[in-house]
Amino acid sequence: MKKPILVVMAAWMWSRYGWLKQIDPIGPNNEVIIDYSIFDAIKAGFWKVIFIIRKSIESDFKTFFWNRFEKFLPVEYVYQELDKLPNWFSVPEWRVKPWWTAHALLVAKDFIDAPFVALNADDFYGRDAFIKIAEFLSENQDSNIYALVWYYLKNTISDFGSVNRGICRSNNDLLSDIVETKNIVKKEWQIGFMENDNWNVLSPDTLVSMNFFGFMPSILEYIEIWFKKFLENHGQELTSEYYIPTVLDQLIKSNKIMCHILPNNSSWFGVTYPQDKTQVIDSIQKLITSWAYPEKLWD
Under a CB-based contact definition with an 8 Å cutoff, are residues 156 and 168 in contact? Predict the structure, then answer.
């Protein structure tokens, strides 16, 4: 079994933040959240990192990370744009953004030849999460068994606006249902979302996916096949989005795959809005003070 690959989705992450939060420092020596994810991945035994970015941020992104990780593991870049599509499909004239997370993995398909973890660039997942998912991938021998690391909803909400989360349900340690749910927000003493003019309350202890998935390469074939169906049904919509949780949910319900849910002892935190940054900086500093991370990661 090959060692796992880390796939970092970093193509579109600034619409709510205002600018490139992928390279907005939160550590004492100019570190960003991606730095801590890659540091943890190296400790857990990952052997390569693939960044999925856009051409429009390539210069800023590569300049910031220039030669930062290459002495530890190979680094590759792929680009998520409005291309690499079926010959019969024409992109709508006013379409601006690619088709989000599942499409991001699809553009990296030719670079992935081993079990891999897909994650967001702007989320801090914690060392234990990387260890748990690396152990799973090293032991798993079935090409149609995957995993995700879950977190409690109450620990993933921003105080400064709405968030999108994959709401999960499980049967023992297997994922039975995952629904990409938009605009979840705190409202007075509740957490919930609006749908068809109705306020839907969610338990604070609801299990959610934060896009931390352990996949076998087989997921890429499924994504490619179903992307064609997605384009047939939604390709002409200017803002349609092709999410990993949606593909995963369809695969589970069609009995094509199984997905384990992995508990972990790590704390999640991230930056959805600029106001979240102060809390993230404080959280990182506490981890440094407790010796979980060195003050300078790449010294």
Answer: no
